[in-house]
Amino acid sequence: MRKKDLEKIVIDYILENKENCYRLAYSYVKNVDDALDIVQESTYKAVTSLNSLKEPKYIKTWFYRIIVNTSLDFLRKQKKVDIVSEEILDVYSHGVDDVYENIDLQRELDNLPPNYRIIVILRYFEDLKIEEIADILKENTSTVKTRLYSALKKLRISMKD
Predict the structure, then answer these.
(1) Family per UniProt (predicted)?
(2) Which residue among 64, 76, 100, 143 is buried most deeply as judged by most CB within 10 Å?
(3) How many angstroms separate the CA atoms of 116 and 139, rounded?
(4) Alpha-carbon dihedral of residues 149, 150, 156, 159, nearest 10 degrees?
């Protein structure tokens, strides 16, 4: 396939699925601006590394993997930054907090370990198959199934409380 054709396919896919891509990035960083930056950087990485997409039918898992890796890189870089307390941020903040339709579920999802949380998000919020999640996270499908089962069990227990 020609590079121009492949580039058009990738750009069209990203434009059609920009909300899903944003949600995936946001699930990692929990910040609107950072999530937008991650989607933008992921788009740049995708367009500049078209040769790594071997088969166009796997574009979804390929691009989601780029978003996940970019998000993880961002989080690693953020750990090096000094954290400011919530009280200090509140003094300088003029913004409005994000509103969730189900704040309890969001809170409990945030309490899950990151490797469990991302599987739940990809499976139920992004509607990906177990095999696609395994490809994105570079994990065995049985590992993904086990983590998903454990995460759902933890969510059930914590939501009962």
Answers:
(1) Belongs to the sigma-70 factor family. ECF subfamily.
(2) 64
(3) 12
(4) -140
Domains and CATH numbers, the chain: 1-82 (1.10.1740.10), 90-161 (1.10.10.10)
Name residue, tokens 């914590």: 158
Cα 45–chain centre separation? 16
Q: Which amino acid is at 64?
A: Y
Are 96 and 111 in contact by the 8 Å Cβ rule? The answer is no
pLDDT in tens, 47-65: 999 888 888 888 998 999 9
Closest-CA residue to 136 (of 68, 72, 53) = 68
**Percent of the chain scored above 90 by pLDDT?**
32
Please, are residues 118 and 137 in contact by the beta-carbon 8 Å criterion?
Answer: yes
pLDDT band for position 143 (cuts 50, 70, 90): very high
